[in-house]
Amino acid sequence: MGSPTADQLTAARRSAARVPLVEPARGLGRVVTWYSRRAYGDVLDNALALLHHRPVLTAVFGFERRVARWQRLDAGLKTLAVMSSASVIGCSWCLDFGYYAAHSEGLDTDKVREVPRWRESEVFTPTERRVMEYAEAMTLTPPAVTDELAATLREELGNEAFVELTMMVAVENQRSRFNSALGLTSQGFRDRWELVP
Asked: What is the pTM of this model?
């Protein structure tokens, strides 16, 4: 018996989700799957989950388009913050997709790979470490952000970037908790990108 095919792996992953993940054959769902495949090379499992509630889907997509326009915080710092938050929550889907997003944006994927063990890794600057510490502290329940850490980051980043950092971590908490609660797991984005020479 050989290794499972990509289609078999996808079917197994999707069947483990807590809501049916079926690619629709018509309507808005067909448009969403077409766009997802065109933009990301695969149909995003969380998009299939969101298709169960069209008003939620359109609200989330609209919000995410606006979030993508925020540019006061350095893109590399933003990615490290988002990945740190996803790591605390344990969202393998978000970590996998975050790697893909970082690669697509030309960011340092060696650093992204080290996020889950940032305290021991030597690849991060002091500011990057503080950003990840802040993201982790925000993600804990209850949040454990200290006045000292917030003040240091505000001084280093400026008020606009600090507010954007804070909102990005909050947004990632929403994403990661949604995906984790629905049982969505890695789609293999990182593996595909690491195979590209």
From this structure: 0.93
